[in-house]
Design brief:
With 309 residues, the protein is α/β, with parallel strands linked by helices. The protein has helices at 49-59, 74-85, 149-162, 175-181, 192-199, 204-212, 252-265, 270-285, 297-308, and strands at 12-16, 20-26, 41-47, 63-71, 93-96, 102-108, 114-119, 141-144, 166-170, 187-191, 218-222, 228-232, 235-239. Helix content is 33%, strand content 24%. The strands form 2 sheets. The chain has a 9-stranded mixed β-sheet with strand order 5-4-1-8-9-10-11-12-13, with helices on both faces. It has a 4-stranded mixed β-sheet with strand order 3-2-6-7. α2 (74-85) links the parallel β4 (63-71) and β5. The radius of gyration is 19 Å and the shape is globular. It starts with 11 loop residues before the first strand and ends with a helix.
Length: 309
Amino acid sequence: MPTKQRQVQPKRLIAVGTVSTTSIYRVDAIPAAPAKVLASQACRVVDGMAVSAACSFVKLGGQATVWARLGDDNEGGQMRAALLAAGLDVSCLRTVAGTVSSHVSVLVDAKGQRLVVPYHDPDVDDSATWLPLPSLVQADMVHCDARWVNGAETALKAAKALGLPRMIDGDIAPKHVLDRIVPLATYAVFSDAGLLSYTGATHVETALLHIASGHEGHVGASCGADGYFWVQDGQICHVDSPVVNVVDTLSAGDVFHGALALALLEGKSIESAARFACVAAALKCTRFGGRLGCPSRDEVDTFLSEQST
């Protein structure tokens, strides 16, 4: 009888952060106020930094659960349905009574750069006591952004106690917020702007070496078209990002995080995982629509295969 092949279980991510409904408008240029500008394209998407990373993790072949809060308005129900349609486990989304769901407006110019205007209800309950921490035993990694620091810190501490890998998105945030979560991360993965803001340095390499000197885990920075930089054995390492026709950079960093997390869980080296994530983020930038532009696994693998030959 033929030998049965062992089915590989997809890797599972828990993403902790905020969820928003984002309206994205494509314009020729972002003018100085006061002004009125007509959009050539528009779309709405349910996203958030950790949420978009989770969406890319799923689209590239993993499974993901979102731990986040929603308002008890009609928008909250629509957001839950949209994330379910994107393949996420939404059973741990908490509806907070008496609050308004988060929403964001984004202008994307002809070069793919953007202006982001978010609104988060200041009266939303910030408590993380409701998080289903026992379910962490079913996860392979926890990924957190810095927009809900109580939730991130609680999840990261519980995951650390279990020995689970932990990744944070070190985007621009108040220093006291990052001070709470960076030390808890196995993988502290910054944006270049977030890294420089956090450290006060003027160069990515200097900032990375400074943080790595006091951090036991991986420290790196996603630098858009300049690729990914990280510290290994006290030295700066780097992989390039492929050159593409940039249409929309919104959520490219989030796609990078999701792709990097999946590749690392699949056993890839840091260099291979970073290359995989750079390609995923670059391909996303060729498409309008924020995280909706995340490529499929086949697209990333095909691009990498063509590069190698």
